[in-house]
Amino acid sequence: MRNPSWSKPILAAALAAVTGVCAAQALPPPAAPTAQAPVATSTDNVGADALADALACRIGAARYPGLMQEIRGERQQDFRQVYRQYNEPMMDLYQLQEPVMAWGNQSDVVVIASSRVMLAVEGSLDEVTARLEAALEQSSQSPLSGGLDEQHALLIFEAGQPGLEGMVLLGCEYRIPGASLLEDPADAWRRLRDAPLATPVP
Predict the structure, then answer these.
(1) Number of other residues whose CB lies within 10 A of the CB of residue 85
(2) Which of 33, 44, 111, 189 is the most interior residue, by most CB within 10 Å?
(3) What is the reported pTM?
(4) Where are the domains of the chain?
């Protein structure tokens, strides 16, 4: 049976986004798993589709620091080079060869921010939200995410950057400290080398 309570946070997110506020809404706890509709029991299942998992908030704290390396390893052609970069906020845009599906919406444009993985979906906020709500209702016994909590939040808001006009950004925000998706872990040694030495205490 569908659970209408799933749609309430989404409607609140849509209203907030229309007023120009970036909406980050945590959904209610998922329904208990059933034999007919099992749910994921781990958010660190390396080997699954990392991009799809990231968009659906299925990445846990242990997997998060190496997320971009995992995505690039699985989708070498798509993530070989950034298609476009933005400032304020800093975001990288990637053009995929094949579209991906997340939260009931499909797109071949992925936007990565410091702590966000999002699809850029063509259409109005109302249209994208309606498809998202329909997907949540259909999956009320088997949620798309592994469970949204204090480390994960669903995002949906209108894009305003050049080249993203008429699109809605939809995906997941990761509230996991200590790592940025825009920083390559392979460069950590260089940042450490270039860091100023601490002033000795007299």
Answers:
(1) 10
(2) 111
(3) 0.71
(4) 4-30+41-181
129 and 10 in contact (C-beta within 8 Å)? yes
Query: What pLDDT was estimated at residue 188?
Result: 55
Most confident option among 9-13, 75-79, 183-187: 75-79
Cβ(159)–Cβ(165) below 8 Å: yes
CA distance 23 to 40: 25
Alpha helices in 35-187 (DSSP H): 50-55, 67-74, 125-138
What was the pLDDT predicted at 68? Answer: 94
Distance, CA of 49 to chain centre: 13
What distance in Å separates the CA atoms of residue 88 and residue 94, rounded to the nearest whole number?
18
Residues near 98 by Cβ (< 8 Å), separated by ≥ 6?
Answer: 108
Residue 119, helix vs strand vs coil:
strand
Judge residue 70's burial from the number of C-beta atoms within 10 Å of its C-beta, 0-12 exposed, 13-18 middle, 19 or more buried: buried
